[in-house]
Amino acid sequence: MNHKSIAIDGPSGAGKSTLAKLLARELGFLYVDTGAIYRTVGLGASRMNVCLEDARAVESILPQMKIEMGYGEDGLQHMYLNGEDVTEAIRRNEISRYASLVSAIPAVRDYLLDMQRRLARENDVIMDGRDIGTVVLPHAGAKVFLTAAPEARARRRLLELKQRGQETELETVLRDIVQRDEQDRNRAVAPLRQAEDAVLLDTTELGLEESLKALISLVKGRLAQ
Ligand code: DC
Q1: Which ligand 1 atom is nearest residue 104's CA?
Q2: Cβ of 37 below 6 Å from ligand 1
Q3: 20 to 30 A Cα–Cα from 198, which one of 8, 61, 138, 175?
C-alpha cells in the first residue's frame, strides 16, 4: 500500500513541531520529528567526548550508538539512546548546537536516512526537519516551508525553554538561533532550503490558531491535487 507523506521544513522556532503535531492529529497521520533524531546523535557523541566538528571521529563512533524511536502511551515520539529514554535530555539548549554540528556530517545524514524513509514507507507521515522535502521525501504529497522572522522565533523558543524550566535571555536565544540558521543553511550536504515545489508559510504575524488553519487548508489542498 502506498502511504501519504507530508514534508514540513524550516528553521528552528518557526513552529514546525507544534503545528505538525496538531496537523497529524487532524489527519490521523504519524508525526515524525527528525530534529529529535539528530539531537539524539548530538547527545550521544557529546557523551563520548568526541569533537563534534571532527567528521571522522563522529563517524567512527556511530556504530556504537543504538538510536531508536518509539511512540509512548501518550502518543508522543520518544527517543532512545542505547536503550535509555533521552526524550527530555535532548531538549536541553546546548543539545540544539550539538545537533546542528553533527547534522553537517555526511556520514551522520546517511546513517539516519534509511530510518526516516522506512517510517514513511510504513506509515502515513508528517515529517518535519530541514531536508525532508529536498532529500528525504522528494515525492511527498505536500511540502511546506514554514518560517518566521528570527525575533519571533526567538521569543517562541524562549517561552518553550521557560516552560521546560530552563531560564535564559532573549538575546542569547536569538544569537543561538541566528548562528544555527547560518550553520544549517550553509552546510555542504542537505542544507536548509525551500524545495522548489514547497509552499511558503510565514507565521511571523500569525498566532497558533491562524497558523494551523492556514497549514491545514494548504496541505489538504495539495493532497487533493
Ligand atoms: O528541529 P530541531 O531544532 O530539533 O533540529 C536540531 C538540529 O538538527 C538542527 O539545527 C539541524 C538538524 N536537523 C537537520 O539537519 N535535518 C533535519 N531533517 C532535522 C534537523
Answers
A1: 15
A2: no
A3: 175
Q: Tell me the pLDDT of the chain averaged across its residues.
A: 94
Distance (Å) from CA 2 to ligand 1 centroid: 27
Per-residue pLDDT tens over the stretch 91-133: 988 999 999 999 999 999 999 999 999 999 999 999 999 999 9
Ligand 1 atom nearest to CA at 39: 6
Task: Give the residue whose CA is nearest to atom 5 of ligand 1.
Answer: 35
Residues forming a β-bridge with 81: 67, 84
